[in-house]
Amino acid sequence: MTTRHSPDVVVIGAGVVGAACAYYASRSGLAVAVVDRGPVAAGTTGAGEGNVLVSDKEPGPELDLALLSIGLWRELAQVLPPEAEHEAKGGLVVAPDETAFAALRMFAEGQRGAGVEAYEVPADRLHQLEPHLAPGLAGGCHYPQDAQVQPAQATAQLLRAARRAGADIRLGDEVKAVLTGPHGDIRGVRTARGELLAPAVVNATGTWAGALARLAGTELPVLPRRGFVLVTEPLPRVVRHKVYAADYIADVASGSAALQSSAVVEGTPAGPVLIGATRERVGFDRTLSTEALHRLAAQAAALFPVLADVRVMRVYHGFRPYLPDHLPAIGPDPHVPGLFHACGHEGAGIGLAPATGLLITAALREERFAALDPAPFSPARFQQAGDPQ
To answer: What φ, ψ does residue 80 adopt, rounded to 5°?
Structure first.
């Protein structure tokens, strides 16, 4: 068995969160190795829509993280190649009736107090923003900060930039063991190709982060939450923003294991319209759910009648890494010195990745993170409070 050169940190996972951790850590001067058993963005990232959202988050730690990430994605768009497809398209949340509109107004007012740009749109102005919206909606809120990236390309470009900064990217190499010293501290990983020694390991394995934590001798209650996305045939730009009904916000915050669906509809630069999003806790069951697909299609056509006769070219699905309190775990493990977690972002990992990368880099360097309080994301909260499942 060979022992490879010793970096400062091994990042396990070549999805968008792992890529962002590698990017910011390598740019800070740390020697980084990225290891993944598959190709770039082969897990949750590649099954995502590329959402970079503030519109669906209530005031609190996750919204603070999202606001920081929105600005970082704008900065990255200036330095990454155009293939990342950062598009500051804005979001439009619509309400079907006056009761929902009143609740949306109250939600947006709280967000504005936290720094979100949110503008009320009366019913008679909705079609100025989205000409093909269904008639009869009560109103909506426009969120100009919402954006989108092409998930796999953005991840690949972050990793290429990390490599240019000195990172060692090792794909197709599965981690078999997390190596620890006599006092339980991290000393590296063992992969199919040999040992890779390092004093720090970042667990950025998404839905499989609980299994990786157990390899290291600790626990993290990450669960999979399945979701489907429909992809239509290429169309003219019939959907200008990221558009969804207000009940999507409740679905995101829900802890229910049952199937939930609320259409999120958006156009892409390439032409196809993406239609998400469902949520259900069914373990790692990859069975195609016709009920979920029918619900999404019907809800999308209800928002945009022009889509009723459009062909769906393909369907894809993935598993969002879900933590019971709906916050990601970002920071050092309380029991395994040198182990850092960057996981549990559920469906917001693409949007929250840059801020997560900065938080992890500050933790690795034992530096104070001034941009926001990292305490709410600490993995120690589960051990302190007991497993909240």
So the answer is: -85, 155
